[in-house]
Write the structure tokens for this entry.
Amino acid sequence: MKDIRRIVITGVSSELGTVLAKGLARTEGVEIIGTMRRRRNASDKFPINVALLDRCDLTDSKCCKRLADMVSDRFAGPFGFVHSVGDFWTHVPFGDVDSDHAKRVFSSHVLTLYSALQALVPLMISRGGGSCVAFSCNSVQYNYPWMAAFTASKNAVDSLIRSLAHEFAGDGLRLNSLVLASLKTKKVRASKPHGDYAHFIAPQEIVPIVHFLMSSASMLVNGNSIDVYRYSKDFYRRGYFERVSQ
């Protein structure tokens, strides 16, 4: 199996998605299709080898078909898929998250992934396989309070990835999730003014990990939830509610 040089990255309007698209596009011979839910604007500056599909709501089957058609037209052979979609979450007590809010959380994190994979998996199989990467959160492991809906949705992401990895391994597909600690972005910092920033991960540090999962060197890595974190001596020695916004 050769390194994957054609990659779909969803959610490129987010800080993580933007960094991933620009970072992976630096590799020679790489072609990227990036999606965003909103309309593109003049500030959306990407390398020439990143084609944008804007106004692409992945909960809409018509938008998923647009994505699949674009992939079919532009990509030949195996391709990768990196899912960087999901509404931003702040720490909210369970009683303040009504069912409509919870539905939006599940829809943005789980349904977008499910729908995109339904559109792209048949193409991957017909083209000889591919590598898929989704993003989870270490809240799934640590069961933090004030994150119930978000944590449940990320747990579903992990389960979906592992299930499909087993289902399609014989078709040449690999699916893994990256279990992230907090990202070092302005938005996350603003939501955690007392956060243990030494524990945070810069989005740029995730690029080489995704690059590895798109390479032939990772051909045996399949069906895993992979922890990505930086050790901090203070993280487990301070109270949870000291590190989040009150």
